[in-house]
Amino acid sequence: MGTGMLADQVIVISGVGPGLGRKLALQCAEQGARLVLGARSGDFIASVAEEIVRNGEQAHAVPTDVSKAADCDHLITESVARFGRIDGLVNSAFRFETSRFEEADLGRWREAMDVACFGSLKLAQAALPHLKASRGSIVNVSTIGSRIGTEGSGGYNLSKAALNMATRQLARELGPDGIRVNGALMGWMAGEPLKQGFAARAAARGISPDVLERELMDTIPLRRIPTDDECAGAVIFLLSGLASACTGVLLDVNGGMFMAG
Q1: Which residues are catalytically annotated?
Q2: Strand order in the sheet with 250-253
Q3: Domain for residue 26, yes or no?
């Protein structure tokens, strides 16, 4: 038997990328979980799985586009074939569409919805028989942008806002089966994606990235930008037995930048 908050659980994570997704996968493995990683970038998730295996844990990578129903079914089938069960599902896939509403191609906004919301729903539906058997849990990764909106990110924010309501709808319907469904709403996260974003924005304004970072930190009560490691910890909490009485929760993970009333 393994040790840790997720000892011997089988966790499926979609949308594993170089920021939060990778850190979450590594932390889940450290907490004793056996992992199945899904994302469109097959080479990247294979490298993350290899990193986990080198650390003495278990992981399997399955290239997956969650906007395709067949891929969702395949990810779940492969997970059960590999490890025999599913205890937790983390829906982290998204499509980031940057456009202001006035100029937006709404078809691309719809594509963002197909990934973040309907892709998550399809994965949950495919995993449902296995989650019923394990009385497992689902964690949907969302964003502070679904709370307050951010300029030029409407397609992404709307898709995650829909996912928030899906979280509560599924929590209501699946609770009698012992399945918990919660959401973690991430704010800004210190990591490589944010660093690259700062560099691009700073160059456009002709200022130092440090100035942008300070401007952002001044809007956060903790006066620092949470790390992707910290944000991953919130997801692990919701997956774990420590959150056994929590379902339908939308947990804000943003250093206090937004506080739900």
Answers
A1: 156
A2: 59-63, 34-39, 10-14, 88-91, 137-143, 180-186, 250-253
A3: yes
- Give the pLDDT of residue 1: 56
Q: Is 199 domain-assigned?
A: no
Closest listed residue to residue 126, CA positions, set 178, 60, 79:
79
Alpha helices for 5-97 (secondary structure H): 20-30, 42-54, 69-83
H/E element holding 34? strand 34-39
Mean of per-residue pLDDT scores for the chain? 94
Could you say which residues of the chain have pLDDT below 70? Answer: 1-2, 261
- Residue pair 27/232 in contact by the 8 Å Cβ criterion: yes
What is the domain count for the chain? 1
Tell me, what CATH number does 165's domain have? 3.40.50.720
Span 210-246, pLDDT tens digits: 998 899 999 999 999 999 999 999 999 999 999 999 9
Please report whether residue 194 resides in a domain.
Answer: no
Residue 177 counted as domain residue: yes
CB burial string 145-170: b at 16+ within 10 A, e below: bbbeeeeebbbbbbbbbbbbebbbeb
For the chain, the residue count is: 261
Q: What is the pLDDT of residue 197?
A: 77
What is the extent of the structural domain holding 150?
10-186+239-252
Q: Give CA–CA dist 77/152, Å, rounded.
A: 37
Number of neighbours of residue 110 by Cβ within 10 angstroms:
14
Cα of first residue to Cα of last residue in the chain, in angstroms, is 41
pLDDT tens sequence across 172-202: 999 999 999 999 999 999 877 788 878 877 8
In sequence order, which residues have a C-beta less than 8 Å from that of residue 144 and are 6 or more positions away?
185, 186, 187, 188, 252, 254, 257, 258
